[in-house]
């Protein structure tokens, strides 16, 4: 197998993702394997999770691309070998020579495509190769998949609550867990259904659309419009020049103050805010979006914005809208919309009533749901802290378990049945019903015949004998594809672009039955094993479990 560069796969996005990004015990195990002469034995590991996050019944798989980039460029440097010598001083020199020689040319990776909807127990990735090498991949793979899948799922849940028609903006960089967390959040929130990010570095690196306006500090830094001179602002078509934009804005503000519909709503507005809006609009006449809650939304912010937007309209520009960052967002958005609609009707400004309203201020799933129930006029939501920190759940809880070595299936037992692993190398399928929805995922042993369309397939719960059902699938999808063939002759799946992963995520979520997706009391999706695999799990379980003795 060619190395990563030859295969055209660049290194991981984060330069910290190197072979050394793993737990020390992976190296101590690798040394023990090497000392015992077991390091080249062929092992198969499953990477999966045990429970869906956020009280839901689905998860979105993400992070695969970064895993493939890691193994495509997996090679220890001389400096890394020297460091490992210093922390493992009793290890033999031959072990470090071995580490210096290894790469992932003999590793095979099978995975569900990134952006897919996935469920507990089903392997997201199957990794096969020399046991010592694959063991070294455990920690970085779990690290790269865990947060990526968690935050992508979180983003998809926000998209589901907000609805398809709303614009979702990821504003989480300043609240993320460090620069790495901020960059990952921007990338995976985009996959999960967000439309844009405020993170300029993510925009450059990943090609994610960027959005942003100004802060309260910008507004409060100004004192009065008299301090600003905006001359020579050219019209949108370039045919004329406005010699005094400030005067044009003041004229419109005066008209608004005299408008009968606005009597008693506002009088004198905050002039420093007006100055800030004029300054920002003259800098960005094609994309003027104002933060209107620095002083008072309806008595100052919205009227000041409208005066500037109307002046821009005279020059052929169309303002973008406003942002609300505090207060009763439902009420304020409705009142702002009424204000815009009055202006459209009173002054004949086409489209003014549909001016975009963006809301931010520590939004999360619950507040979006509450806004929907109250009724609101918000067009776009800027969401940060609760989104990128996955505030309601710290981790997905992915695990990496040995299921076969030297063609011998292995099982991990536990008194907690949810922690019992499903042994042997597997193939996994998704079975679809007549309405086009997925019905059940089924795992089978590698050498079993796959389920067939129109034929009854017995699907069994892995551990509960009475839970079983026949399924007659109308469509069968094999879930795992080869993303790194190692020395095998299998064809390697190409890594899709970020936009293709995002499109897959949206398509997969659309395909799910609504009761699996709802926020409250969602229906659990069924994950099963074939009859043969069920029998084998319990045969192996009885063989491996020690028999108690009563005295």
From TrEMBL:
Its EC number is 6.3.4.21. One of its GO terms (cellular component) is cytosol. The keyword Ligase applies. Residues 20-146 form the Nicotinate phosphoribosyltransferase N-terminal domain. It catalyses: 5-phospho-alpha-D-ribose 1-diphosphate + nicotinate + ATP + H2O = nicotinate beta-D-ribonucleotide + ADP + phosphate + diphosphate. Its cofactor is Mg(2+); Mn(2+). Transiently phosphorylated on a His residue during the reaction cycle. Phosphorylation strongly increases the affinity for substrates and increases the rate of nicotinate D-ribonucleotide production. Dephosphorylation regenerates the low-affinity form of the enzyme, leading to product release. GO terms for molecular function: glycosyltransferase activity; metal ion binding; nicotinate phosphoribosyltransferase activity. This is Nicotinate phosphoribosyltransferase.
């Amino acid at each position: 197998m060619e190395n990563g560069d030859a295969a055209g796969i660049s290194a991981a996005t984060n330069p910290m993702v190197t072979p050394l990004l793993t737990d020390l015990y992976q190296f101590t195990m690798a040394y023990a394997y090497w000392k015992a002469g077991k390091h080249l034995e062929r092992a198969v590991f499953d990477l999966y999770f045990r429970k869906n996050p956020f009280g839901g019944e689905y998860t979105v798989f993400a992070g695969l691309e970064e895993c493939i980039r890691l193994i495509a460029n997996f090679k220890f440097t001389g400096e890394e070998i020297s460091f490992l010598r210093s922390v493992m001083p009793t290890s033999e020199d031959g072990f470090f020579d071995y580490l210096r020689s290894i790469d992932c040319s003999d590793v095979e990776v099978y995975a569900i495509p990134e952006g897919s909807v996935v469920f507990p127990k089903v392997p997201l990735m199957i990794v096969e190769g020399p046991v010592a090498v694959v063991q070294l991949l455990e920690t970085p793979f779990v690290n790269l998949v865990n947060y990526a899948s968690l935050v992508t799922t979180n983003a998809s849940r926000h998209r589901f609550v907000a609805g398809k028609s709303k614009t979702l903006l990821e504003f989480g960089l300043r609240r993320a867990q460090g620069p790495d967390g901020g960059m990952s959040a921007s990338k995976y929130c985009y996959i999960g259904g967000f439309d844009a990010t405020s993170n300029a570095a993510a925009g450059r690196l990943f090609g994610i659309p960027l959005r942003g306006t100004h802060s309260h500090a910008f507004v409060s830094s100004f004192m009065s419009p008299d301090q600003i001179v905006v001359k020579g602002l050219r019209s949108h078509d370039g045919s004329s020049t406005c010699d005094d934009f400030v005067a044009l804005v003041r004229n419109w503000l005066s008209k608004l103050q005299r408008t009968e519909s606005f009597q008693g709503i506002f009088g004198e507005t905050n002039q420093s805010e007006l100055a800030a809006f004029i300054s920002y609009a003259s800098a960005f006449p094609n994309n003027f979006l104002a933060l209107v809650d620095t002083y008072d939304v309806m008595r100052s912010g919205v009227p000041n914005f409208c005066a500037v937007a109307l002046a821009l309209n005279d020059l052929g520009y169309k303002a973008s809208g406003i942002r609300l960052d505090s207060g009763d967002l439902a009420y304020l958005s409705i009142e702002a919309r009424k204000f815009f609609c009055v202006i459209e009707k009173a002054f004949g400004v086409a489209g003014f009533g549909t001016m975009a309203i963006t809301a931010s201020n520590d939004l999360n799933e619950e507040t979006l749901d509450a806004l929907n129930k109250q009724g609101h006029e918000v067009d776009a939501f800027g969401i940060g802290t609760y989104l990128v920190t996955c505030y309601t759940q710290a981790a997905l809880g992915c695990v990496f378990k040995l299921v076969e070595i030297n063609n011998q299936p292995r099982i991990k037992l536990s008194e907690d049945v949810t922690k019992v692993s499903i042994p042997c190398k597997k193939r996994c399928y998704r079975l679809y019903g007549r309405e086009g929805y997925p019905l059940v995922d089924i795992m089978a042993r590698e050498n079993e015949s796959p389920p067939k369309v129109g034929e009854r397939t017995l699907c069994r719960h892995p551990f509960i004998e009475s839970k079983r059902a026949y399924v007659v699938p109308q469509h069968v999808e094999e879930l795992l594809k080869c993303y790194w063939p190692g020395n095998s002759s299998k064809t390697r799946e190409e890594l899709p672009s970020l936009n293709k992963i995002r499109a897959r995520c949206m398509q997969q979520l659309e395909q799910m039955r609504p009761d699996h997706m709802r926020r409250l009391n969602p229906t659990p999706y069924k994950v099963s094993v074939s009859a043969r695999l069920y029998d084998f799990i319990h045969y192996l379980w009885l063989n491996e479990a020690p028999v108690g003795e009563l005295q």
